[in-house]
Amino acid sequence: MIQLNTDNFNMSTDDHMLPNDADIFDSLNQRLSLIFSNYIKNGQESKDFVLEYLKPEQLIDLISPEPPLQGKGEQGIIADIQNILKYSPNTWNPGFMHKLYSSTSAIGVVGELVATIINGNSHVYVASPVASVIEVLLSKKLGALFGYNESICGGLTCPGGSASNNMALLVARNTYFPYAAEHGFALSYSEKIKFNFKQPVAFTSNQCHYSIEKSMMMLGLGKKNLEYVNCNINGAMDTIDLENRIKNAILQGKRPFFVNATAGTTVLGQFDPILKLSQICQKYDIWLHVDASLGGSLIFSKSETTLNLLNGTAKSNSITFNSHKLLGVPLQCSYLLFRDGLDNVRAQVSSNANYLFHDDQDDINNSLAFSPNDQQTLSNNNFNSSNKKSLLLNQYSAESWDIGNATIGCGRKPDSIKMWLSWRYFGTNGFASRVDNSLNSSSSFATLIKSSPNFILFREPISNLVCFYHIPISQRNDPDLNPILNLTSSHDNSFLNFPDVLATYTKSITALLNKQGKLLVDFASINLFDHDGSLVRIPEFFRIPFNSPFFNIDHLQFIIDQIEIASATIYP
Amino acid sequence: MIQLNTDNFNMSTDDHMLPNDADIFDSLNQRLSLIFSNYIKNGQESKDFVLEYLKPEQLIDLISPEPPLQGKGEQGIIADIQNILKYSPNTWNPGFMHKLYSSTSAIGVVGELVATIINGNSHVYVASPVASVIEVLLSKKLGALFGYNESICGGLTCPGGSASNNMALLVARNTYFPYAAEHGFALSYSEKIKFNFKQPVAFTSNQCHYSIEKSMMMLGLGKKNLEYVNCNINGAMDTIDLENRIKNAILQGKRPFFVNATAGTTVLGQFDPILKLSQICQKYDIWLHVDASLGGSLIFSKSETTLNLLNGTAKSNSITFNSHKLLGVPLQCSYLLFRDGLDNVRAQVSSNANYLFHDDQDDINNSLAFSPNDQQTLSNNNFNSSNKKSLLLNQYSAESWDIGNATIGCGRKPDSIKMWLSWRYFGTNGFASRVDNSLNSSSSFATLIKSSPNFILFREPISNLVCFYHIPISQRNDPDLNPILNLTSSHDNSFLNFPDVLATYTKSITALLNKQGKLLVDFASINLFDHDGSLVRIPEFFRIPFNSPFFNIDHLQFIIDQIEIASATIYP
After folding, report:
1. In angstroms, rounded to a whole number, what is the distance separating the alpha carbons of residues A129 and B98?
2. Where, per the database record, does this protein carry N6-(pyridoxal phosphate)lysine (chains A, B) (predicted)?
């Protein structure tokens, strides 16, 4: 007879540890659903502030930093949730223009909710069959949009665009330097000879995202072995400079292996010339990665001009694409797509973790031999294998469905569920509208800037970012401003001589706007090359992204007005 | 006059692109809340299958792989959601014992919902003030639980335990090899002299998680420079072997810099002797990392014996702790804690991304000078700065609140919101009950196994994992089984002579159980050292984690019964 002390299983109800989560969920849902829906509504209608800014010391007061010994139960966390909502930026408000994302959509919220309710984990098929299938198929569909061959390409989600870029560099590194996984790069003299060692060198433009440099640092390649290629005056990579640098590196006995093309730079929203870069990369046998974290969404646009910005992606080896930016899928949902599929990715990064990646699928299928009749009763799904599907399935080996072994991690969020439900709800046409409306908003706003006397458009917008300066009326007599006072609103891109005092205006106005909280905006400075090839630091300008799909002319005018008002307050 | 074509802003309502997400959220919530709550209820009451297993080709039929041109709207995605729920494992069912996590709680679901509704991004303070403050404070509280000095320690969340381990290794690498970030490891002869290069070597036990090896690979250190330390027969690291290996490495001119202690191995749930390891690490100036992904939750236990397993964490340099495992916070919520705070982390990994990390806070504070009276109207919060709080705040420099610059990423999910709300709801006592109930379940189940004639307990459970074999009655005459038929239920740990045929039983029964879907279990094999120091491969056994806090004696008996029934079906 088994002797178990069943008292062990009696828990205090004070600890809220009974299996009644359905009731708690219902109760919380009832109490919170109106709070949530009002939050969304007041955000989208700009009734609430974008942000009621509190300083850290004020927030520490609010959130009671000491975790309680006894649980606070429902009432306790509802108060916490209200504080979180109240003192975080309301991203549903179109005035949230601080970062390169906006709110998600109701569908995005529900998608994350579903992923959380199943507590999905798409590392092995058996733990997340549906999410795994969605991720494999969706990556292929996305690859096809970018011009890859759908039957060959593949992809997966990573926890953010930086992680995707990092993973792309890792796969390229291990592909070009096959000894690296086992031996690393700290080679002895004899190992260098044996492996025919050449110094790995990577290239990116000086406008790229900082994750490229961090990835070089992380992967043991060293920041100094990332060469920053000059940009043209428009902020796109100078292909002549790139090729010269590649040739030089080869002359020095180095091995150029990776070029990062930025499709949508963080400040100007500029696109490197991907097609030209692919030709150079092909010529020198270099991995071409496209960091389309920001600009990848433009692949949904119906405008030919816009699509041309991404021309050449089909020839790249890999693409990073963040659906959590312009498409409004909840943070995080970043795709890393590979032209040649995931087989090489697995070969480069997989590890022999047989406690996890034993082939469940085969084991389960094999088990059918033991009780063949069970299959009918278990699945009522009328599955008829057609030739078309067989073709599709032949593209995958059994292990293709365990996505985790193509990553450097273990458990992973099934982010594709959110993207999938969004795509199903909005359709390709809905994504197109969303993207094109953002682009319309930014170009309309640029037009508005040009027609407003106290504003100077820095550049015509390329994607959904608008960069501009404001000059307070009371400051127009400042002699420092002379060089730009007569600048026409559609000045030549080659004009880079912006006085530093503009940065002061930008920063002080931004700070006041953000403190007031009706509009949350950000600024940036960049370094550009002038026609002589000298690097010029451009003082801080307003950099406003148009991420929300819901802008109208009133919103655009509101931005202008708010800047004018803040300007008059600070510079009366 | 501004000339804008406002038609640009008219979008087709067919594209579901109007700012009415509150209505859509309400409508979806109304249609889904009962579906969700029934799903939770039927799971927890084991009314639904854990998994209705479909093969990939069957799922492809269900999910319509071609994304639609026109959106499917609400009705479309509700059908999708029902498929996701139906054909994913129901982790709320206590019979989901396949992986090292179970369902989340209702509070976890709501926590993720809040994080998604704000579309929170805790990379810079201004984008997520509340989440940033919570993350900074909570990491300190967790560090204090593990014995760190709360006023000094710090931490942050990473996207999973592997990412946390990876980051710990990166910070250690850059700390011990300060040239690595800039130069990488592919050094020339003269650089090696200049930097006084010594080959970096890291150590971990052969029972560790595979992410340690993957991290060595990823960081350019090379898998071969990870030395696998022998374990004692109990599966914990052999400290004598470790010290010998360290000495040997030093004799060879190498630089041992990192020891990974596993606190809760993936198969046996064993703990390396952290305190002893810390003494060795101190002696040789080595970074001690504790991978407590699995076992870190035990810090909440009220049992002295259990807490002793984690003895020594206070002396470690860093700790990985996954609250998404035993504590039921939704995937993902992994903490990486640093004894000495985040300053060194920032120094080792931060990058100069001034488009993102300009000091908003100072800018905002400075702007108060322009309109000092605004402060009253903006914030109705009665903030009185006290001495106590000033002391707390003095621990942080302004940049401490921008967490992103202490990571290798950019945008990041504010995972701490989920952990915070869970802790607030359940309290420290609730977490203690949860953990101790899991431990009680596993020890009770081990007792049950020992009293069941057709089962052999492989080892007494150390944490919440139980490893055991089953012998089908009809197979007892197999001569291969002779060595173990008379094995007492509490056999000596030194017995390692398990016949291979046991693996066949384990795998076939597991496969049938998983196909039937009332119970989802997994198996594992490991390599252990016998007393002679020879490595013995232990054939696959059942490895069942007790993650759910809701087990009762019926659940435990159900597992035994299901295995017996499957066994009788396969081996009649």
Report:
1. 14
2. 325
